[in-house]
Amino acid sequence: MPSLDPRHDTAFLDSQWAAQAGASGSAMNDAAETSPESATRILVVRLGSLGDIVHTLPAVALLRAALPHAHIGWVIEERWAELLAARAELRGPQTPLSPLKPLVNAIHIAATRTWRRHPFAARTRLQLRAAIAELRGTQYQFALDFQSAIRSAVMGRLARPAHFLGFSRAHEAPASLFYSRRVEPAGRHVVEQNISLAAAFLASLRSPAREPFAPDAAAPANISFPLPQDPLHDSWAAEQLARNHIAAFCLLNAGAGWGAKIWPAERWAEVARGLAQRGLRCIVNYGPGEEHLAERVAQQSGGAAVAVSSSIGQLIALARRASLCIGGDTGPTHLAAALGAPIVAIYGPTDPARNGPFAPSSSSAPIVVLRSAASITDHARRRQPEPGLLQIAPQHVIAAAEQVLGSSG
What's the pTM? Predict the structure, then answer.
């Protein structure tokens, strides 16, 4: 079955990036000073996607809490950058941390998806050179690759850090060849694994010669997801609710990364009708490529749901206002969980123990995950819904929603 995320001409561009990384002459200088006081410039590499970036935030928040005066930069795809800062803060001179940019000092945009699809274009060469120059100009001492992909490892290496950390079991095995230090991931959930990489880095500052290179056993007691809050997007969200005469609402995230994770539109519509009978309207959020699905849900709901397109920043503002979020294994569901919304999650081929909704320590909002015992963990990007997913019926979801709403008051 062909992938829903096609890649074009990637082998050539990966080889070009690797050649440039090797030509940098940057054999990792492990003799460099690694005291906590010297950890002033740290580069985080996590290019995408929405849910994966959300699940990386607690690890970077741990770095920020441990090293409050460090300069932390993040290299990221532009479409996800509003997870780190309001649009007005993404370019131009660096600004102090604030609610508009709560976590990192610098955001480095890398259009790796476009570069891989158009490796011979003049614009690709210009943008790649500019990105490399910007990264090297910051003179990062440390880089941490949370993505474990070849393209993320190459971007981190091109920054020429003295120390480059990544997982020993990389998602794309060749990526680990770029790291000067390799960390065995700890924990089952990806949030815990990301925290283990950050913890290993912090441990190395205290004891740089310690082997094997491993994180502290205990996860931090306070897990947080620092997300920007933009007054412009707050105003937009308030306007959307007023325009549609909505007070309390449920945010429905009907889309997903590939077809096997997508519950049928008619079932989403039935859930919306059931919630409307209980006094709760639904907003069906959708992003690029999900317009048809969202409109089908809204049309079949008989007025119980309205489809709303949003940017990442606008989605953050909507999720902050939601009384409930129902969705599959998809970025908006993870975002809502990170913001402390009550969650009902509908899972099929992916394992919620590793990729399920994860709330901040400060949240008391309930999370219910529905997954059939017939579902088999499988990341093959098939177009049709996974059979186990189809065993979850609308009445199961409505019952779970009532449970969550009752628990959250």
Answer: 0.88
